[in-house]
Amino acid sequence: MIHFNLAKTIDNATDLSLVGKMANRHGLIAGATGTGKTISLRKMAEEFSRAGVPVFLADVKGDLSGIVKAGEPTGKVGERMAQFGLDENYLSGFPVRFWDVFGQTGIPVRVTVSQMGAMLLARLMNLNDTQEGLLNVVFKVADDNGWHILDLKDLRAMLTHISDNAKEYRTKYGNISPASVGAIQRQLLQLESEGADTFFGEPALNLEDWVQTDDGKGVINILNSEKLMRAPRLYSAFLLWFLAEIFATFPEVGDLDKPKFVLFFDEAHLLFDNSPKALVEQIEQVVRLIRSKGVGVYFVTQNPLDLPDSILGQLGNRIQHALRAFTPRDQKAVKAAADTFRTNPNINVATAISELGVGEALVSFLDEKGMPNVVERAYVLPPSSQLAPLSEVERTASYLNDPLYAHYKDMVDNHSAFEALEAQAAEHKAQEEQAQTQEQSKSAQTSQKQEPTALDGFIGGLTGARKKSGQGVAYNVADTLGNQLNKQASKAISRGLMGVIKNLFK
Fold first, then answer.
1. Mean pLDDT for the stretch of residues 180-205
2. Residue 401 lies in a domain
């Protein structure tokens, strides 16, 4: 049976190990600033990696990159190594892959809008039922026409298309409100302002690339979250997709000898402070149900009260560093933390939490039957890797030389809804221009047929018909000539009549 050795008791240096098949029951690392939370996080990540378990780390402070290099037996690490009789063979680096949603300090992370889906997008943007319904219509129309919604410009183009052709789509898909279209477009602008235009697109992240091993060790995937945390909507978008994708793609495996994948969320309170309700619900669902898929989730935070009770109750493996009870809320947190442990008659947990030194912790892991062990006061084992983060040059060289970088580095703008709608609009415009040209040609031909000739004008002038446009000079000449002929004919007729009358009276 696999055990992850993480700490030693203070009194008799007994090993405190996390049982491998219980590692998917999730966990919590808590403690005030500077008490050793990050050390515990690193040690757990290292042990998982050493056992061949891939790891995901959200690096909020940018201080975890040193895991790639072996540490040095100096300072506090050297003291703890000497204390427990550890030699330099204990020190080692681990395979690390750096990721960055913005593509500035790691391999770019992207997903398509279609992968996110209408439901998650609606939750991310806090849309009401009517607006969510419209978003579903957008995706349905795209599916029915074979248009792929890959990035934000595709989605924006679809919204414009739906709005412009609302009458056509209303009978088939239901009412399309211009107000709802506008509300969604405004939400898209907010997402875009946080950098979502770089996050949504292709090539999309293949989650299998995060579940890799290297020379028998699990790859530690470090997502640079320093800048990402300042874009809460974008961070929420990533986590919503990430957790949903894990839940959807990983098969049910039950309790394995070791987890298939382990997730660490440092500064976990940032996940829940002012986060969309959808994200909190998604995390709660994942924590409750993802255990059976062989995935462990570990939260790192200062105060256990930072986490919702529905999540806190699911975290079976605990490492509690020192808490300071300066305020009533702090005192409440100490009591809450103490009450979550299985009591040990030899330890006053509430008192011990306030007395723990740096690197010390109250530890309680689940046993082989899934029951919490009694709480023990312990020293967390020192990390094997370098504590100091990599320099910018070292980090850049690391991800630029990564085999996956060549695949993900450049965004690809494939033919999608935007291009399809542009082509459709161009085709309609060409058809309209062609129809207009044909109409103009017909009008010209008709006009030519109706236009009187010079002969028509001459005859019209002779017969005394009303002058028409285009008859011109021919009409005028013939009209004058006709008038003269008419006068002469009138005189001849008059003379003839007078002669007849004279003969009658003779």
1. 92
2. yes
Give the closest residue to 177 by CA, choosing from 135, 134, 214: 134
Domains of the chain: total: 3
Do 339 and 400 fall within a single domain?
yes
How far from 290 is each of 58, 88, 218, 317, 441, CA to CA, in Å? 19, 38, 20, 16, 70
Tell me: do 57 and 144 sit in the same domain. no
User: Is 263 within 8 Å of 300 (Cβ atoms)?
Assistant: no
| 449 shares its domain with 495 | yes
186 and 288 together in one domain: no
DSSP 291: G
Question: How many other CB atoms are there within 10 angstroms of residue 129's CB atom?
Answer: 8
Q: Do 159 and 102 belong together in one domain?
A: no
459 vs 256, more confident: 256
- Selection from 218, 217, 208, 296 nearest residue 21 by Cα: 296
> Both 346 and 297 in a single domain?
yes
What pLDDT is attached to residue 457? Answer: 52
Give the residue-averaged pLDDT of 450-456: 55
Q: Which helix (H) or strand (E) holds 30?
A: strand 27-30
16 has which bridge partners? 7
Q: Would strands 376-380 and 3-9 be described as parallel, antiparallel, or unpaired? A: antiparallel
Residue 339's pLDDT band (cuts 50, 70, 90)? confident
Mean pLDDT of 451-464: 53
Q: Rounded distance, CA 363 to CA 373, Å?
A: 9
Last residue of a domain, one of 170, 197, 224: 197
Report which of 27, 16, 29 is spatially closest to residue 320, judged by C-alpha positions. 29
Provide the 3-class DSSP secondary structure of residue 395: helix
Last residue of a domain, one of 178, 197, 216: 197
Yes or no: say if 67 and 45 are a contact pair by the CB < 8 Å rule: yes
The model's confidence at residue 499, banded by pLDDT at 50, 70 and 90, is low
Q: Is the domain of 145 the same as that of 284?
A: no
Strand-pair partners of 217: 214
Q: What is the secondary structure of 403-446 as a DSSP string?
A: TTHHHHSS-B--S-HHHHHHHHHHHHHHHHHHHHHHHHHHHHHH
Q: Are residues 220 and 330 in the same domain?
A: yes
pLDDT tens-digit readout, 97-139: 999 999 999 999 999 999 988 988 888 888 889 999 999 999 9
Parent domain of 166: 113-197
Mean pLDDT within 278-306: 86
What is the average pLDDT score of the chain? 86
More confident residue, 471 or 34: 34
Q: Which of 193, 129, 192, 130 is nearest to 155 (CA)?
A: 192
Residue 65 sits in a domain of what CATH number?
Answer: 3.40.50.300
List b or e across 59-91, with b for residues whose CB sees 16 or more CB atoms inside 10 angstroms: bbeeebbbbbbebebeeebeebbeeeebeeebb
